[in-house]
């Protein structure tokens, strides 16, 4: 690693990022790898720090910082070194570019946030351009961008890159992967017959080219000038060079280039394309075998990354489930081959299903009720010749599936639920509790606790799985049978109405319990005052020490005893539970207590929905006669009895598997932190099971954890997660599904029409929803549902009719539309919107 105030590009490598910023580090890497880069040098971040000290910069006052850096002379030692380096370049025209430490990184490019100066000539102009670059670190757009990306202002530094100007006869930008669809080895090139800066600023329209890098074919050519800016040979040479740059950095790159007056190619900058989604490791050659990866995160309505141990949980779960169905898994910790990780999120390789004549239709149908937009994407993919059906017959596929289900014992377990719903459901829960009970002495070793974790996942889950799925399967079948028996006799709204206000839904029971607690606390002066006057964080701290008002302390304790294992993002065992961090629940209670006394009570609304559903059931039974009436009566009663159980398997899985698993791992984390193998107890969740075993054996994994935490933080800032990702990098939805042009459309989820002010919420943590407001969210899980109690309607970007948000919306009788692409971007808080939960449309009053 190098140090100093001024460094030449050939002295720099990626290890010097903190000294030379993202742009400088990338240029140094290019030079070291032998790429054609104009000569240059960098004024390091140490130089900036010296200048900032002499200028008296205050990071808390961006305007003052910018003004002082712009007007204070460059320190003499630094000015002397910069001018000497400039002389070695020939003292001719140079480009002076900003290079921030939070710039051109894998997580966020920060492109264009700081300033660049071209055609700078002479020492005086050089020093002036350097000062202006420093000052640009504090311009409004750079400060706003850093804050939006969670970058600490006190940590940012700026280096300045000075390079010889290329006498450009053509210049432009090369993306080594398609920046819109993510497809790899498909170079997109924009070029103009002038300096590239005019292209970046939008002052000149470019020629546009697309090149298949693998085959060396030009796929697309759009020429806007009198003649093509680049020849075919130049295009192919550029695309090949870009591919080499991508291989060197290990990720798709956004490369700025120029052809000089001798038509020699020069690279003047490269940065990662932060918008393309990372591929899983060890992806097979897509030309030989295209793979289709379906996002398990999106299907679960969870767009956040998963901790490594959270992913490990699902790998072990996948192993257990596969073995229960009769499949072999060689490495239990790695899980079945169909589970892959990309961007710290889980994807399922559904290629074999897509190529099966029965499986392709089955998965489209499943997605249509669980994640409707994914269903559309998979249907479009079905026409791709690379995914042509194999010769297996539908009947053979069905026989194999049925045999696997019987092997796992699921139909047998489901039959008991159909015949005796309440009794069998209660017995199954009791049996699962016994199966998943962990018995370890208090002084158990770390190895013993990890063994218990593995046993819980690999032995207990196969025993519990038939009961969990046996509870849910009759729910789905009863709905299907109801649709068949009432075809032509019931409208879609009526079929959805019979699912409203259903009993035995653990999530709505939880929400109504929380509401009931808020009603009691509203009547208690001390509890009410505490909730209204203290922050949720302060209330949580007081709860931990038993210092809350008596009724609030006792009521919250009772709620957490019953539901404290839940949380926002509860599918990740690396996420703290409400029992550990109850601030979210205390915030929800405070919001409920603030409601006016005459606010419509959710428990009354829920009871009204149940009465409406029962009335609809009676009406539908009356419309049919004879044996058909007997069948309809039986099926509809089963729908009412079972539909709430749709949420039960996940509820029990989190309560009986994930919670003891987390508790076991937390204790291991405490021991490892005490021994210095990890920095903090919760770092255990940034390890995998094999990692944890190595740490228990004595290996120091603090550096491993730090790298993974950094990646996790980067991935949390990613806004778009592909629903369906292809092994060539293509975001299938972006490539195959055109955005709607006639307003916002999605899938009908809960009938009714409602108008109200929108409230766009990206995370429920600390969120507030006024009664009657329309909740607009990217997705929801049980951690969101306290907000449903006061919502007038729901608009959600993901989901289908049987997704979590849709089910809970029907429970409360609020209109809902799900699977609405771009809802959180196109709707703003305060706008008046109309949600038609029957038609699946959302209209926006643009005047509001």
Can you offer a commentary on this structure?
The protein is an alpha+beta fold and 848 residues long. It has a domain at 739-845: 3-Layer(bba) Sandwich (Glucose Oxidase, domain 1), CATH 3.50.30.10. 47% of the residues lie in helices and 14% in strands. It contains 31 helices and 23 strands. The strands form 4 sheets. The protein has an 8-stranded mixed β-sheet with strand order 16-23-22-18-19-20-21-17. Strands 9-8-7-6-10-11 form a 6-stranded antiparallel β-sheet. A 5-stranded antiparallel β-sheet has the order 1-2-5-3-4. The longest helix has 40 residues, at 446-485.
Key terms for this structure?
848 residues; six-stranded antiparallel sheet; Glucose Oxidase, domain 1; alpha+beta; 14% strand; eight-stranded mixed sheet
Strand content: 5-15%
CATH superfamily of the domain at 739-845: Phosphohistidine domain
The total strand number stands at 23
Separation, N- and C-terminal Cα atoms: 57 Å
| CATH-defined fold name of the domain at 739-845 | Glucose Oxidase, domain 1
Topology:
Layout: E1 6-8, H1 17-32, E2 40-43, H2 45-55, H3 62-71, H4 76-88, E3 94-100, E4 116-120, H5 123-136, H6 140-148, E5 158-164, E6 170-177, E7 184-192, H7 196-201, E8 207-212, E9 217-222, H8 232-249, E10 253-259, E11 265-272, E12 292-295, H9 296-299, H10 308-324, E13 339-342, E14 345-349, H11 351-354, H12 357-370, H13 372-381, H14 394-408, H15 410-419, H16 421-435, H17 446-485, H18 492-497, H19 506-522, H20 525-533, H21 536-544, H22 550-563, H23 583-594, H24 602-622, H25 627-642, H26 648-674, H27 689-696, H28 702-716, E15 724-726, H29 732-736, E16 744-745, E17 747-750, E18 753-760, E19 774-777, E20 793-796, H30 804-812, E21 816-818, H31 823-826, E22 832-836, E23 841-845
Helix pairs in contact: 3-5, 10-17, 12-13, 15-16, 15-17, 16-17, 17-25, 17-26, 17-27, 19-22, 19-23, 21-23, 24-25
């Amino acid at each position: 690693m190098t140090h100093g105030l001024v460094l030449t590009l050939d002295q720099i490598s990626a290890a010097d990022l903190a000294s030379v910023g993202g742009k400088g580090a990338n240029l140094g890497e290019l030079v070291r790898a032998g790429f054609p880069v104009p000569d240059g040098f960098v004024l390091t971040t140490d130089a900036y720090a010296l200048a900032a000290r002499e200028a008296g910069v205050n990071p808390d006052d961006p305007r003052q910082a910018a003004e002082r850096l712009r007007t204070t002379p460059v320190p003499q030692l630094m000015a002397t070194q910069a001018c000497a380096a400039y002389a070695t370049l020939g003292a001719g025209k140079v480009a002076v570019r900003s290079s921030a430490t939070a710039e051109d990184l894998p997580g966020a490019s920060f492109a264009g946030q700081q300033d660049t100066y071209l055609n700078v000539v002479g020492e005086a102009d050089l020093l002036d351009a350097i000062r202006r670059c420093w000052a640009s670190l504090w311009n409004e757009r750079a400060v706003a961008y850093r804050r939006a990306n969670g970058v600490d202002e006190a940590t940012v530094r700026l280096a300045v890159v000075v390079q010889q100007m290329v006498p450009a006869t053509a210049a432009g930008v090369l993306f080594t992967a398609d920046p819109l669809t993510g497809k790899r080895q498909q170079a997109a090139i924009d070029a103009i017959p002038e300096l590239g800066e005019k292209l970046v600023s939008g002052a000149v329209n470019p020629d546009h080219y697309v090149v298949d890098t693998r085959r060396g074919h030009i796929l697309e050519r759009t020429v806007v000038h009198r003649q093509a800016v680049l020849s075919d040979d130049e295009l192919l040479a550029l695309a090949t060079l870009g591919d080499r740059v991508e291989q060197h950095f290990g990720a798709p790159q956004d490369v700025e280039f120029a052809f000089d007056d001798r038509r020699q190619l020069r690279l003047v900058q490269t940065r990662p394309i932060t918008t393309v989604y990372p591929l899983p490791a060890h992806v097979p050659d897509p030309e030989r075998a295209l793979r289709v990866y379906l996002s398990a995160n999106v299907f679960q309505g969870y767009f956040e990354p998963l901790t490594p141990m959270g992913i490990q949980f699902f790998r072990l779960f996948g192993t257990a489930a596969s073995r229960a169905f009769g499949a072999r898994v060689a490495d239990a910790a790695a899980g079945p081959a169909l589970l892959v990780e990309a961007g710290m999120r889980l994807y399922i390789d559904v290629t074999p299903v897509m190529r099966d004549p029965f499986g392709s239709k089955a998965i489209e149908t499943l997605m249509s009720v669980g994640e409707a937009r994914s269903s559309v994407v998979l249907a479009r993919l079905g026409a791709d010749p690379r995914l042509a059906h194999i010769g297996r017959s539908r009947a053979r596929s069905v026989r194999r599936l049925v045999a696997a289900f019987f092997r796992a014992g699921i139909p047998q377990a489901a039959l008991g639920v159909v015949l005796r719903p309440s009794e069998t459901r209660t017995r199954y829960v009791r049996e699962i509790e016994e199966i998943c009970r962990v018995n370890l002495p208090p002084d158990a070793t770390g190895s013993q606790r990890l063994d218990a974790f593995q046993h819980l996942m690999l032995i207990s889950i196969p025993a519990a799985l038939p009961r969990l799925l046996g509870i849910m399967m009759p729910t789905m079948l009863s709905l299907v049978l109801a649709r068949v028996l009432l075809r032509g006799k019931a409208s879609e709204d009526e079929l959805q109405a019979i699912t409203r206000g259903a009993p035995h839904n653990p999530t709505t029971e939880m929400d109504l319990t929380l509401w009931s607690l808020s009603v009691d606390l509203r009547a208690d002066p001390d509890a009410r005052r505490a909730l209204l006057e203290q922050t949720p964080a302060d209330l949580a701290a007081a709860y931990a020490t038993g210092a809350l008002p008596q009724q609030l302390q006792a009521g919250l304790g009772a709620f957490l005893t019953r539901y404290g294992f839940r949380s926002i993002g509860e599918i990740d065992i690396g996420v703290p539970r409400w029992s550990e961090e109850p601030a979210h629940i205390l915030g929800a209670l405070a919001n409920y207590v603030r409601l006016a006394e005459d606010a419509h009570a959710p428990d009354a609304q829920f009871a009204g929905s149940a009465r409406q559903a029962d009335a609809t059931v009676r009406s539908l039974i009356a419309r049919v006669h004879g044996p058909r009436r007997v069948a309809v009566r039986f099926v509809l009663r089963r729908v009412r009895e079972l539909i709430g159980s749709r949420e039960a398997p996940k509820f029990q899985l989190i309560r009986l598997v994930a919670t003891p698993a987390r508790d076991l791992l937390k204790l291991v984390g405490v021991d490892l932190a005490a021994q210095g193998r990890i920095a903090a107890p919760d770092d255990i969740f940034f390890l995998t099971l094999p990692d944890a075993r190595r740490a228990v054996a004595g290996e120091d994994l603090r550096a491993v954890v730090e790298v993974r935490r950094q990646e996790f933080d980067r991935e949390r800032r990613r806004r778009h997660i592909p629903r369906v990702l292809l092994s060539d990098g293509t975001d299938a939805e972006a490539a195959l599904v055109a955005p709607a042009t006639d307003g916002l459309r999605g899938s009908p989820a809960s009938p009714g029409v409602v108008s109200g002010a929108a409230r766009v919420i990206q995370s429920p943590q600390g969120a507030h929803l006024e009664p009657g407001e329309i909740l607009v969210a990217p997705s929801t899980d049980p951690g969101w549902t306290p907000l449903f109690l006061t919502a007038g309607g729901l608009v959600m970007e993901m989901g289908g009719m049987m997704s979590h948000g849709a089910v809970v919306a029907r429970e409360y009788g609020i209109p809902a539309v799900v699977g609405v692409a771009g809802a959180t971007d196109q709707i703003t808080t305060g706008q008046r919107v109309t949600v038609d939960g029957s038609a699946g449309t959302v209209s926006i009053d643009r005047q509001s």
